[in-house]
Amino acid sequence: MTLSKDQKALIISLSGPSSSGKTTLARLLRDLLPNTFILHEDDFYKPESELPIRAGHRDWDCPQAIDLPSLTRALQHIKSTGEFPPFVDSKEDQNTVGSCPASPTQINLAKAIIASSSPPPSSWPKDLKICLLDGFLLYSQQPEFRPILSQIDIKLFLLASEEKAIARRKARDGYVTLEGFWKDPEGYVEDVVWPNYVAQHSYLFEGGDVKGGKLDKEVLGREGIVAMSEDGEGEGEQGFGEVLVWAVGELVGKLEGLLGDRDV
């Protein structure tokens, strides 16, 4: 992939199960990378009254809950202008993510990786912004997602085991919504959140076995998705600080190629 000279923003997606650290990672990367802002998929939820019902609950975690045409329009605006869409009223930044789980040493290592990139950040095109697209549901194979996927330049995928994802989600206070505030009702995470994640992402795992956690490297390569493993080869779950360092390393490597080849 190459960047055209009229492309005003590079779009990097961070996806994975709910409570895998996507928003925390996005906020840290925003602070570490120059000319960077975040677009949250959660800011494109439909009104609560329009959400489908699953297991007796309003389902916030399925494709039908997201206004996909509006998200596509926002991404197109970002790519053509390099600016955050004026028609998006972000609610996601009102939600808390807790204290930073990366150590100062790990953050300094991430900074050092960025500083040592070639070309260095000081030489990156000033007219090219970086948009971090943060979302629990970005890599679905449903046809409605194709316009979104076509706008993404770099795809990162975070992992979390079922047990950890459920525990982290249950520890959250709740979420600011268009109508006010949502707190997961009893059983929602087990009956709605995790099953939806499995249904939309099983194609990324060997034999469709999400619980086994072994990602299909052939599928990842075909889809252009990069994930981290315990041995550094593309799959598995890690401490957040290690995920930060991994993500920065992956992004810098890809940015070096893209920016080095860009016709400016």
UniProtKB/TrEMBL annotation:
One example GO MF annotation: kinase activity
Keywords, sorted A to Z: Kinase, Transferase
Domain of life: Eukaryota
PANTHER family: URIDINE KINASE (PTHR10285)
Protein name per UniProt: Nicotinamide riboside kinase
Natural source organism: Triangularia setosa
